[in-house]
Amino acid sequence: MNRPAGVQVASVNGRGGRLMPASWITARDTLQARWTALAARERTGLLAAGALIGLLLLWSVAIQPAWRTLREAPYRIDQQGAQLQAMQRLAAEAAELRAIAPVSVAQASAALQGATARLAGRATLQLQGDRATVTVNGLAGDELRDWLAEVRGAARARATEVQLTRGAQGYTGTLVLSLGGNR
Predict the structure, then answer these.
(1) Which residues contact 134 (CB under 8 A, 6 or more apart)?
(2) Is the CB of residue 103 less than 8 Å from the CB of residue 156?
(3) Could you tell me which residues come within 8 angstroms of residue 147 by beta carbon, excluding any fewer than 6 positions away?
(4) Dist. CA 183–CA 130, nearest whole Å
(5) Torsion sign (Cα): 87, 92, 97, 98
(6) How far is CA 119 from the centre of its chain?
(7) Cα–Cα distance between 42 and 31 in angstroms, integer?
(8) Could you list the pLDDT tens digit for every one of the 183 residues in the chain?
(9) Quick one: DSSP state of residue 39?
(10) Is residue 179 packed enough to be buried (19+ CB in 10 Å), middle (13-18) or exposed (0-12)?
């Protein structure tokens, strides 16, 4: 049998041999000699230290990550449930908006003029075909939100461009709206 240079056959517990480099065999023999030279108390201490290191390794690699996952799972499940409900609400709202019949540009213009007139001079409206430009000055956040909801529902208008700044008196700027059935 041909063996590479420097490789010896080492017997493992007298049950035949396996190929190991000669340096490994000498290192193993040296460590075994040192182990047998240690007192029983020292061997027990080294075994206890090795067992402790093994337990620490087992804890940090296998047990702690699984434990953390189990601890955080209920929170993540609740969080994803809330996200799912929000998405379902948005999907239902989108389906409702698609089901609503579009209004003509004339009806949308009338609804938009009526909603803008209720802002009592803090908004001006300019109509240009199926687009409307609304300039607001000093409009409170709640008023702006309510006005946008009314415009979206009654005029079926949607904002395509918004340039607003928030000041001490409220929001100031322009909104460009698309009217009627153009979605």
Answers:
(1) 112, 116, 123, 124, 125, 126, 174, 175, 176, 177
(2) yes
(3) 115, 116, 118, 119, 123, 139
(4) 11
(5) positive
(6) 40
(7) 14
(8) 565 555 555 555 555 567 888 899 999 999 999 999 999 999 999 999 999 999 999 999 999 999 999 999 999 999 999 999 999 999 998 898 788 777 888 888 888 899 988 888 889 999 988 899 999 999 998 999 999 988 888 888 888 999 999 988 899 999 999 886 544
(9) -
(10) buried
CB 173 within 8 A of CB 134: no
What are the tokens at 20?
A: 């190991």
Q: Which two tokens stand for residue 1?
A: 């049998």
pTM metric for this prediction: 0.49
